[in-house]
Structure formats: C-alpha cells, structure tokens
Amino acid sequence: MTHFRRDIARFELIPASGGIFEVYANGDKIYSKDETGVFPKAADIITKLESL
C-alpha cells in the first residue's frame, strides 16, 4: 500500500473462502492464487501494477 499510496483512490478487500486470493486493478484480474497455486510476494504484485 505504501508504494502506491498517492495513486490509490479506492482499495477494497472482499472476503472469500477456500484460500482464494485475487488481485484486481481497474477491474482487470492481475493475479490469482487459485490459478497459480502460489501466494504472491509483494514485489511481484508491485511489478504487475507498475506495468499497467
């Protein structure tokens, strides 16, 4: 959160079950633990967000 604190207008956490962890930016899914089987490192998410 601190990396993009000036750029984030809205941040929302949506509870789910079954170990699902997904990250969306501007309505597009940029990461899915369900698809990869791996919980992401913060640096991986930052890299994906920077490339948008």
Describe the model:
It is a single chain. This protein has a two-stranded antiparallel ribbon. Helix content is 25%, strand content 17%. It has helices at residues 33-36, 42-50, and strands spanning 22-25, 28-32. The chain has a single domain, classed as Glutaredoxin. It is globular, with a radius of gyration of 11 Å. It is an alpha+beta fold. It is built from two helices and two strands, in the order ββαα. A hairpin with a 2-residue loop joins β1 (22-25) and β2 (28-32).
| Class based on secondary structure composition and strand pairing | alpha+beta
* Head-to-tail CA distance between termini: 16 Å
The biggest sheet, with number of strands, parallel, antiparallel or mixed sense and barrel status, is: 2 strands, antiparallel
> Low-confidence segments, ≥5 residues, pLDDT <50?
none
**β-strand number:** 2
Question: Any idea of the CATH class?
Answer: Alpha Beta
SS strand fraction? 15-25%
Oligomer: single chain
Shape: globular
What is Rg?
Answer: 11 Å
Percent of residues in helices comes to 25-40%
What's the total helix number?
2
Within CATH, the superfamily carries the name Glutaredoxin
What is the level-2 CATH architecture name?
3-Layer(aba) Sandwich
Annotated CATH topology:
Glutaredoxin
Average pLDDT, rounded to a whole number, is 90
Strand line-up in the sheet with most strands: 1-2
Keywords: Redox-active center
Pfam families: Rdx
Protein name: SelT/SelW/SelH family protein
InterPro entries: Selenoprotein_Rdx-typ, Thioredoxin-like_sf
